[in-house]
Amino acid sequence: MSGQIIITAFERSPDGGQGLARDTRVRWALEEAGQPYEVRLVSFKAMKEPAHLALHPFGQIPTYEEGSLALFETGAIVFHIAERHAGLLPDDASARARAITWMFAAVNTVEPPILELANARLLEGNKPWSKERLPLVEGRVRDRLKQLSAHLGTADWLDGAFSAADLMMVSVLLRLRSSGLLDEHQTLAAYVARGEARPAYKRAFADQLAVNKPPAG
Prior knowledge:
By secondary structure, the chain is an alpha+beta fold. It has two domains: about 100 residues, Glutaredoxin (3-Layer(aba) Sandwich); about 110 residues, Glutathione S-transferase Yfyf (Class Pi), Chain A, domain 2, CATH 1.20.1050. It has nine helices and four strands. A hairpin with a 2-residue loop joins β3 and β4. α1 runs parallel beside α4, α5 runs parallel beside α7 and α7 packs across α8.
């Protein structure tokens, strides 16, 4: 199965390089693990063509290829990287299980209301019922942030040392930056800042940003 790791990313990310596209999470994991990889950029048109659909049945990014192995779904890809390489999951079996639990919590419990808020603001803002619905959506996000902040407390990371759980959770919380809701919880804002300060994150962010910079001139 061993071979060059190849991931896919947007040829031009909808966020303009803010690091919110999910390939950044995979880049970050590979950087933390010290694994070299190549990036194949995919246009929106190519994402819906047979070659890409063979890798990702839903026509999205990122995908991960390594020899004969092809994966999709960011959480599964990061979990695969974390299992195969040191630095992203604890050695202790119980701590490892807790880290995996928090990985699932990031994408299954914390991210859905955050994505719902993004859709409510960007896609539904002009609907006549938007002003009534938006506070309800924001309230669900605030509830999750309050619960997460209570768990984190004064700790640097979710459970002991930095792990793939923190990588996924920080990536999810970064989606809230423009909303201002993250700033209501300085504990979480500082937590995200610690994640962004990691050298591996900085390398991953810089690489995806370089793809999305407008051409000079």
